[in-house]
Amino acid sequence: MSNVQSVGKGRNLPPRPFNGVKIFSATMAADREHLGAKVTTWIAANPQAEVVDTVVSQSSDAAFHCVAITVFYWETLPPA
Question: What is the distance between the alpha carbons of residues 3 and 42, in angstroms, rounded to a whole number?
Answer without folding.
Answer: 28
